[in-house]
């Protein structure tokens, strides 16, 4: 079996030179920003509040509701299923598309209040080893029990989008080591709707059936 | 020293901090600002540098020196960057440059990493060689005077990166990388450390405040922007329905004529209500800590706020907080998740009643608040992000350690 090395990430947040005061500028900003900025704005809350999810929606949706009072559009943007996208560039296109489709020219020009503009941000990612490794499924199970939540977050959420892949690191290792059923079951989950701790328990429950 | 924080942030975090610090070994880091004492920058450097040294980092701190004329000019710069109208002569800019140039000759700027804090020493960057230079701006530049900002911009562009405390403080025409690094609180400091219950009770007893009845507290200087009158009005609305006391505690305003005036206005608004306690306090961190810990609800009803670290201080103490929906407060509180954001006196009163009448809800918000601060606003996170910034590599978004 191949060895699974548990890693985690640390983010250093960057402020980009792009701000938006209305939907038109939000669309223009989305066109301009690098893909990792989309990652930051759709996962920041998850990372910051991983201990007490369910988390608030993504930054775009949050701003559209709070600063522009466009509740319906906010809900539509928040409902974009990130799991359907293996590439951040595709996710970015989707946001632009749904925002355009669900607003009129007039609505797109409605400005937010002063000091409430949307500031696009991104992040530098530092990937570090946790020092923990698993050489088989039983070891993997034992490590998952105690591995820091940031590592679960990294392997489930970040690695999938960073590597432009449709599956997360855990699924990838399971497939590589002939645990296709575990990978398949994991593929059905929506990790965006559970806390990292609930996700940990779900992984443990699933693996327990196979060891 | 860093090990002392293990009981708060966990041993894994300590190991992570040490492993990042390891990568800075062999590098010399120099901080430069304008004072060793007084002000937020000196306060944070005084706490950070010993912690970083305890992880084996070679970090030093120096200050620039100037005469009264120089500090007169930098004071005007400070006001102008905050949007206050000031008049500048060519000589002002000359004084600023000459003083920075003199300091270039006196300060050894050959460290591998030079970290400059605020505008006063910004032009030291003229001595930049192949080493890394970073500029920390604690000021909101969005309404800055164009003349001063454009003067400073010529220096900003020479740095490798700059740091802001809020995305709203930055400008879109800065071309070097801009990092967002929030300020922080030190959980081991007198202002935030755990206190004995008896000490807390004694503080309230000494001020003749009944700790057994609900207490609403706002800690802030007597400044109109902190809206102490609004706080009293909100308290009075609550008092009609719920038994409670109000504590407004803040630092001395002896050298601030407007502060003294606001203090008088607050006393006038209090009238003869014995349950309103207006406390003009000398600097005493333990006392502030005790007042926060013994309170039922903490308010920060500012009309304008830079970052407002008193919010994080209160949340760290597992206190439910109601704060205005302004400035950096919004980064510390997500409405109805780890606190309540209000936009009016009426809203503040409404939320105070909710929290006093529903202690379970208050405890839920407070616990989320404590976790939020633990993950985002402690000094250890602040140090980690500074170290990461020093380790960034040009044009690389992902770095493998």
Describe this structure in words.
The complex is a heterodimer of chains A (211) and B (401). Chain A has helices at 23-32, 35-48, 59-66, 71-78, 88-101, 105-108, 137-146, 149-162, 169-176, 180-188, 196-208, and strands at 4-20, 118-134. With 211 residues, chain A is an alpha+beta fold. Chain A has two domains: 8-122, no CATH class; 131-208, no CATH class. In chain A, helix 2 packs across helix 5 (88-101) and helix 3 packs antiparallel against helix 4. Chain A starts with a strand and ends with a helix. The mean pLDDT of chain A is 90. Chain B has two domains: 2-184 and 378-390, Glycogen Phosphorylase B (Rossmann fold, 3-Layer(aba) Sandwich), CATH 3.40.50; 197-376, Rossmann fold (3-Layer(aba) Sandwich). Helices cover 43% and strands 15% of the residues of chain B. In chain B, strands 2-1-3-4-5-6 form a six-stranded parallel sheet, with helices on one face. Chain B has a six-stranded parallel sheet with strand order 9-8-7-10-11-12, sandwiched between helices. In chain B, strand 1, helix 3 (40-54) and strand 2 (58-63) form a beta-alpha-beta unit. The two termini of chain B are 24 Å apart. The model of chain B has no long low-confidence stretch (mean pLDDT 93). Classes of the chains: A alpha+beta (211), B alpha/beta (401). The interface between A and B is medium-sized, with 30 and 39 residues.
Q: Which descriptors would you attach to this protein?
A:
heterodimer, A: 211 residues, alpha+beta, 11 helices, elongated, B: 401 residues, alpha/beta, Rossmann fold, 2 domains, 6-stranded parallel sheet, 15% strand
């Amino acid at each position: 079996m191949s060895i699974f090395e548990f890693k985690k990430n640390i983010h250093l947040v960057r402020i980009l030179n792009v701000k938006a005061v209305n939907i038109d500028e939000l669309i223009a900003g989305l066109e301009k920003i690098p893909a990792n900025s989309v990652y930051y704005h759709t996962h920041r809350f998850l990372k910051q509040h991983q201990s007490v999810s369910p988390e608030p929606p993504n930054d775009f949706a949050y701003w559209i509701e709070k600063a522009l009072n466009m509740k319906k559009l906010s809900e539509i943007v928040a409902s974009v299923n990130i799991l359907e996208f293996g590439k951040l560039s595709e996710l970015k296109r989707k946001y632009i598309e749904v925002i355009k489709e669900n607003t009129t020219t007039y609505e797109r020009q409605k400005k937010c209040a002063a000091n409430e503009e949307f500031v696009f941000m991104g992040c530098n990612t530092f990937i570090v080893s946790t020092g923990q490794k698993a050489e088989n499924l039983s070891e993997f199970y034992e490590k998952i029990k105690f591995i820091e939540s940031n590592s679960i977050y990294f392997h489930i959420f970040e690695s999938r989008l960073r590597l432009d892949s449709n599956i997360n690191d855990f699924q990838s290792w399971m497939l590589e080591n002939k645990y296709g059923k575990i990978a398949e079951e994991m593929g059905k989950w929506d990790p965006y709707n559970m806390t990292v701790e609930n996700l940990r328990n779900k992984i443990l429950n699933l693996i327990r059936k196979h060891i | 020293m860093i090990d002392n924080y293990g009981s708060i942030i966990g041993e894994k975090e300590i190991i992570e901090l040490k492993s990042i610090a390891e990568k800075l070994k062999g590098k010399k880091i120099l901080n430069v600002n304008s004072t060793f004492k007084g002000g937020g920058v000196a306060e944070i450097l005084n706490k950070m540098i010993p912690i970083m040294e305890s992880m084996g980092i070679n970090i030093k701190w120096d200050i620039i020196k100037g005469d009264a004329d120089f500090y007169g000019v930098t004071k005007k710069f400070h006001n102008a960057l905050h949007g206050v109208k000031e008049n500048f002569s060519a000589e002002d800019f000359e004084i600023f440059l000459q003083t920075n140039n003199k300091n270039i000759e006196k300060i050894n700027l050959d460290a591998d990493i030079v970290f400059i804090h605020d505008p006063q020493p910004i032009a030291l960057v003229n001595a930049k060689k192949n080493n890394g230079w970073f500029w920390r701006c604690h000021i909101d530049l969005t309404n800055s005077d164009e003349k001063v900002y454009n003067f400073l911009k010529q220096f900003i562009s020479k740095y490798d990166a700059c740091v802001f405390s809020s995305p709203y403080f930055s400008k879109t025409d800065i071309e070097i990388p801009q990092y967002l690094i929030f300020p922080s609180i030190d959980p081991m400091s007198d202002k935030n450390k755990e206190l004995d219950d008896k000490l807390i009770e004694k503080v309230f007893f000494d001020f003749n405040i009944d700790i057994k009845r609900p207490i609403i507290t706002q800690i802030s200087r007597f400044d109109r922007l902190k809206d102490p009158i609004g706080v009293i009005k909100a308290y009075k609305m609550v008092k009609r329905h719920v038994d409670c006391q109000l504590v407004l505690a803040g630092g001395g305003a002896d050298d601030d004529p407007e502060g003294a005036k606001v203090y008088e206005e607050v006393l006038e608004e209090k009238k003869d209500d014995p349950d309103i306690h207006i406390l003009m306090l000398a600097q005493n961190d333990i006392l502030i800590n005790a007042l926060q810990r013994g309170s039922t609800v903490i308010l920060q009803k500012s009309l304008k706020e830079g970052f407002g670290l008193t919010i994080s201080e209160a949340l760290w103490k597992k206190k439910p907080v109601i704060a205005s929906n302004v400035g950096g407060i919004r980064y510390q509180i997500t409405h109805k998740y780890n606190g309540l954001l209000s936009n009016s006196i009426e809203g503040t009163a409404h939320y105070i009643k909710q929290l006093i009448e529903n202690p379970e809800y208050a405890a839920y918000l407070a616990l989320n608040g404590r976790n939020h601060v633990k993950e985002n606003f402690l000094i250890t996170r602040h140090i980690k992000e500074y170290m990461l910034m020093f380790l960034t590599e040009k044009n690389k978004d992902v770095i493998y350690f």
